Amino acid sequence: MKNPLKIGLAAIACAALTLALYRGGASLPAVAQTDSFSEGQVKSIEKIVKDYLISHPEVMLEIQEAYEKKTEAKRGEAMRSVMPEFYKTLASLKGDLAPLSVGEGDVTLVEFFDYNCGYCRQTLPELLKLMDSDKRVKIQFLEFPILAPGSAEASKVAIAAAKQGKYLEFHKAMFAAGRASKESAFKVAEQIGLDMERAKKDAASPETEALISKLSELGKRTFVDGTPSFIVGDKTNPGAADYDQLKQLVDTTRKDGCKSCAADASAPSGSGVKDEKKS
Predict the structure, then answer these.
(1) What pTM was estimated for this model as a whole?
(2) DSSP strand E in the chain: where?
(3) pLDDT at position 76, please?
């Protein structure tokens, strides 16, 4: 059985030395079999790699950036492959999700978010700016509490607020309140004037719990592994986004249409995400 340490060191050494030789314009020697390295050779390789990386620390950043780009590309491809099913599920949840949406328009921007997500809090003003500047965009918020138990409690109260027609008001106030928890969520609910008896009942209802579970499962099936994550038509944007990025997603979808929406021929008209231009 081959020594994993030797194989790993050989791989790193080859990568580092290849890059060094490439930058220096030298030709590449034949690579020896990793299982033929002696312990002394392994130590020599360790020193070569260490010395090279100390002299060229930017290589580690290049490797990390390349890895992130490759991972993100694979993730985006995986998400796009399930978009028709994603829209079909949104259509089936139309009645439940309508109170969690804002605006009516020809393009819908979907956001998976968590009330304890700092990047979600950072992105909210950008999202509100888009809503103010583009009256033809619809925002569909999807509760996706993955960061802490308090996130799920806040989501339950948010759904209760939606049932009283105050979802966006609660949404903004909850992010402004800081860390989300059951206590802070009900405090916000009281501050915005909810019927507290009804809110507590709705937040604790099996229907509310079921909706959060369905959205959690939807996120997992759509390969959403962090918040915020935006979906507009066939386009995805994981992570924080500024106004220009969000606007570009909307404008591109308005121009090119949504093939994934069109592919779901079974979805009823006016489903969770409007059928942008069919193509």
Answers:
(1) 0.71
(2) 101-102, 107-113, 137-143, 229-232, 235-238
(3) 61
